[in-house]
Amino acid sequence: MKLVEWTDDRGYKHKALVRDTDTEAMAQQGMGMALDPPDVEQIDWELVKRDLHNLLMLHGIINWESIKSDNPFFTASLIKALKRHVVALFKESAR
Asked: What is the layout of strands, in order, in the sheet containing 2-7?
């Protein structure tokens, strides 16, 4: 088996395992074992935006002054708003 890596026409990076005798084009056509993360297009981005907005409000992060002082709640809010949705994708893909 060999690992093939490529970037599609939309700029997304991909990896796949194919037989040693297969071409890279075969991997790009889906004929190998895909090694991509779950499709983030499945995330409900409206929910992510709402969650982020509400977390920023909760922590009083409402302007540039709120974040330029290395406010730890800013980064935490970004991560928390997205993390649960990404984790759910991984759990769903494991089924």
From this structure: 2-7, 13-18, 33-34
